[in-house]
Design goal:
This protein has 155 residues and is α+β, with helices and mostly antiparallel strands. It is built from four helices and six strands, in the order ββαβββααβα. Helix content is 22%, strand content 38%.
């Protein structure tokens, strides 16, 4: 990761994966546009695993946010989506990064259904009101364990 990259501002998500099979071990992030360095300091924490040197870290920088009216106005594998909705008097929100639907083989309808459940709502979907979808894109920067240590040691 280039040094000047760390001073830029961007919402980001950090995903730790098993380097050999790609399984997600931990994913944290924010939609706040703080400096990348500050966001990394908040979210670049190692998962509790026996052999952390086998992990790969993906830093997803999020951009090109657009609210969409049509639930199909996004592209699997290209766009992440964030949903916000109200149901039974409570507000809910959830997101999937651009890679999630394609990695799991979901279509658009399945992805939105999974997001509703991820948000913590398990009730009747007909009770959902004020349903908003924001699509976004991300650029992925990968770090191995040694690169992670280099960034963390520059605090």
């Amino acid at each position: 990761i280039p040094e000047n990259w760390l001073i830029e501002k961007s919402p980001l998500f950090v995903t730790w994966r098993n380097a050999s099979n790609g399984d997600v071990k931990k994913c944290l992030g924010t939609f706040d546009s703080n400096s990348i360095k500050n966001n990394l300091d908040r979210f670049l924490e190692l998962p509790d695993l026996d052999d952390i040197t086998t992990l790969e870290c993906e830093v997803n920088l999020l951009d090109n946010f657009n609210e969409i009216a049509d639930r199909d106005d996004w592209e699997i594998g290209r766009n992440g989506i964030k949903i916000e909705f109200t149901a039974e008097g409570r507000d809910y929100t959830a997101t999937f990064l651009p890679s999630v639907a394609s990695e799991n083989g979901w279509n658009k309808t399945e992805t939105i259904e999974k997001l509703i459940r991820k948000a913590g709502y398990n009730g009747d979907v007909s009770a959902i009101t004020k349903f908003n979808i924001v699509k976004y894109e991300s650029s992925i920067n990968k770090l191995n364990y040694n690169e992670y240590k280099r960034i963390k040691n520059k605090k």
